[in-house]
Amino acid sequence: MSDARVDRETVRAEEIAAEQRYLNVLYGKLDDLRAETTQRLKDTLRDSGGPPQARTERDISTRMYTDKLTQLSAVEHGMCFGRLDLDGGETFHVGRLGLFDEDNEYEPLLLDWRAPAARPFYLATAAARDDVQRRRHLKTSWRKVLDYEDEILDLDAAEQGSDLGLAGEATLLARLDARRTGEMQDIVSTIQAEQDRIIRAGMNGVLVVQGGPGTGKTAVALHRAAYLLYTFREQLSKRGVLVVGPNPTFLRYIGQVLPSLGETGVLLSTVGSLYPGIVATGTESARTAEIKGRQSMTDVLTAAVRDRQQVPRDGVEVTFDREPLHLRRKDATAARTRARRTRRPHNLARRVFQDEMFRALTLQVADRLGRELLDRRDLDEINTELRAEPAVTAALDELWPEMGPQVLLDELLSSPDRLATATAKPLDDDERDALLRPAGTPWTPADVPLLDELAELLGEDDAQQRADRERQEREELAYAQGVLHIMEQDEEIADEERLRVSDVLDAELLAERFRTSSDLTAAERAAEDRTWTFGHVIVDEAQELSEMAWRVLMRRCPSRSMTLVGDVAQTGAPAGARSWDEVLSPYVQDRWNLAELTVNYRTPTEIMDVAAEVLSDMDTDLEPPQSVRSTGNLPWAQQISREDLVSELPHAVSDELAEVPEGRLAVLMPPDLLAEIGPGLAEALPDAVIGTRSDDLESPAVLLTIDEAKGLEFDAVLLVQPEEVFAASDRGLNDLYVALTRATQRLGIVHSGDLPATLARSFE
Ligand SMILES: Nc1ncnc2c1ncn2[C@@H]1O[C@H](COP(=O)(O)OP(=O)(O)OP(=O)(O)O)[C@@H](O)[C@H]1O
């Protein structure tokens, strides 16, 4: 071995040993913190009883210590992943949480990656160094330092012989080349500059992140959630952050990323699960879902609600006080007009309708008795008696019933007559027929925005609940004022310099603390409350959402503090977006910002070349993202007759699996074909499952439709029957583009008919 090499290895071993010593200090600190927090939690749990204030404080502490322990456990693996050496000789280690040295004026021992001081770790380049001389990426396994890669940003220093480096890139490429596990991993140690700018963008307003496949949109969205919670914790922990994904499989795929970053207070949901109490398990055709997703469904639902506000035929009678009473069409029409004019939701306007009707009926009874003989009190008495008469209230209920969204929607979709009335304007006969279904059919994801819309149109007559809540809030405020008073009396305020309790805490804030101190996080409370509004909403695969789904999300985020990530070239849902402008202009006009991601971290060049051909055939001016890697594995295409698919595909799957040992493979095909040959394939391949449950992604091979594979990635992909995918809908090209860009290593295509021209060009 040459002397120079021996020297380099010695230096490296010494550096690793030094880093290990530093890591030992950090982990020692982590252990101390954990022990201390565990002890505090134990002490809190041991205390019991006491006045309500003490119990509330205990609840707050229990939650705080439990959250802290969860965070401390989450950061164990890869706690410290980098180091920055600055011009003045200062060094900082960067990691998943911040640690400080209490014995040394709280000097930082480890910088949280989200702290402003850690930012150069992601942004500094040789051209814009920001005082950084060297960026070091540490490679660790649990608590052990295995290796490091240095990136020297000071070009002078680099020229003097140190490792000039692409170390950041090497660490990144090693990560990108690694086998996939079926769960998304965080990218905290290798976030790239264009991603960092998005992650740390300000919280206000709507930010759209457009980026091709594999550009890290999902990763960026999740890291942004963690960053916002760190930076705006006070604001966001009250209202919570909502992350919306396209389906439960995807949510499971991304589910571990935030906990691994130490964040637990985020609600991950699909739009289909945003209506508390509804589990949307039903399925329906893409066409029906598309119709339900149209904005014009608001007119349909408005008409359906109005259809429940009836006036009687003339001559309808009810018996009151053994005499017939007429529900007059004229009176009901006037009452209905008045109620509608209030513009209140149906169930709240109902009260106005009833008041008007009781007034008209009271006068009818009064006329019968001789109105001139009655005074105000007599009239009130008649009114009260009428309200207590079941026959009368039942007749009025018929005309303007109190309704819930679920009953109304179920009755609407299962009644040809009601549907015909409500859809007369916006839909034609065919579209109407597509909506019709038997009563009691399970809810589908596309029903959920309709239910949410109806909940708004119907409203809830919650006058009593509101009065109770207001009373409770008044009591809490009075109690908090009392607590403050006592705390102030306890304080010795002799020292003018000291802050008084009331300087930092007012009674309303304290009352709010008591109110929000139950065992639930904001995210958990939000999941139970349809009208909850979030501090920030992040939408992944945002291009897939229908106009009706956007209405739901906008209602959940009146502040419009939102991050929307997606790719309009990957839109598969017929109700999905064609442009961001089209989606957003109804809500924020042109007041939204666009950020673009341009580098593809997933798909190697060889595969991206095939996908780029497909993109170029789409009616879009989007550029394909630039792949950072190439693998040398050329995509292949093979023709297999349709009858032989079940017998031949297993060989292709086994061959591909052998090429990616320990890896994950997906077989992607159109839904009809999957239903037809999926079971036979799954039987022939012991390693393969049909992807119905979310943990199926962990199996070596999974059979999926393209729609189900959206947002996911695999080491190898076999796309079956692209010609059917292409022909299936006018978004066929988009679907092909999605399918082709799921693989990190290998792509194979199996077709029975001719390859669509858009693919054939790549395999000539
Ligand atoms: N800076 C990074 N460091 C390491 N890995 C990264 C980085 N950025 C992205 N990746 C990886 O690249 C892959 C693609 O990322 P991601 O799924 O977030 O892309 P996407 O833009 O959402 O893709 P799609 O549009 O296809 O859903 C993931 O494996 C992700 O971990």
Automatic annotation (TrEMBL):
Binding residue positions for ATP: 211-218
Keywords: ATP-binding, Helicase, Hydrolase, Nucleotide-binding
Pfam families linked to this entry: UvrD_C_2
GO biological process, one term: recombinational repair
Domain UvrD-like helicase ATP-binding: 190-604
Keyword Hydrolase among UniProt keywords: yes
Any GO molecular function: hydrolase activity
InterPro entries attached to this UniProt entry: DNA_helicase_UvrD/REP, P-loop_NTPase, UvrD-like_ATP-bd, UvrD-like_helicase_C
Descriptive protein name: DNA helicase IV
GO CC term, one of those recorded: cytosol
